[in-house]
Design a protein that fits this description.
Layout: H1 18-50, H2 52-87, E1 91-96, H3 104-113, E2 118-124, H4 126-137, H5 140-143, E3 154-159, H6 165-172, E4 178-183, H7 185-227, H8 229-237, H9 242-285, H10 297-325
Antiparallel strand pairs: 1-3, 1-4, 2-3
Helix pairs in contact: 1-9, 2-7, 2-9, 7-9, 7-10, 9-10
Length: about 325
Amino acid sequence: MKKSRSPDGGRRAAPRPGARALRTRWRDRLGAHLDQHRQVAAHSLRRFFATPLQNLATVLVIAIALALPAGLYLLVATVQQLAGSLESANRVTLYLRAEAAPDAIPALRHKLQRHPAVAATTYVSPAEGLAQFKAQSGFGDVLELLDGNPLPPVILVTANASADSAALAAEVGSWPEVDQARLDSQWLARVRAMAALGRQLTLTLAAALALGVLLTVGNTIRLAIENRREEILVLKLVGGTDAFVRRPFLYLGFWYGLSGGVCAWLLLATGRWWLQLPLDRLAALYQARWTIAPVGATALLALAGVAAGLGIAGARLAAGRQMRSIEP
């Protein structure tokens, strides 16, 4: 029987029977690698819960280090939210002259309402202003000692969204009936500047405390490696590589970080609930409603992910140094 030949005259190559087996072996190796990681992760988790009191102290240190910058970030976000809601009013406060004739005030309001840059006006009489001040300041008894009402008539002017409120304040402030025109966005600019400073402080504090988390986890892992020095020496004598020996400690750092992140989220949620009650009472005095930025599932995932990454990084740094010093 003649053997088949290829068109170029050579023998035709037989199909490789090992191609499918090669794919199978690759899948088997991947499955075995994942099984090994699952076993190591479960074993390190059991070791983590074997000494709960000792590990609880480390987890709380990590949680506090993460909760401090996260809490400051929530505070800054709350201030920005409050400033944004107030900034949308785009309001100019007009303090009228005390000697202005009462019949001149309606004419002034009519003149303002016809202005193309004005969206709305609200008149506050001296009596209404005094009543509001008594209700909000808590100095009602002291104000009763005054001979008269020191507050001037006030007109609150809301500018259009597209209008230049600063130019409007400068224009109406020069009218003869107006004693002073104050732009509310002036103090809002100060609030925005304080919020920007708060963001910078948050980043600085977060960087410093992240370094503290790395050192805390690294020191804990270093002690854990020292306690298992004899076991590590035996593993290296039988051929265990540094990566194989280091893997349980990396998972241990992961569990430290993950637990610290979850505890930090619990601290933030508890602190938000604790502070929201007095904040509601304070806002009621100003006839407003202020809400602290929420601490939801996104915050939990962010804290847990960042903490777990810091835990792995701290464990990797500590284990790398210790493994080089443990040689059979």
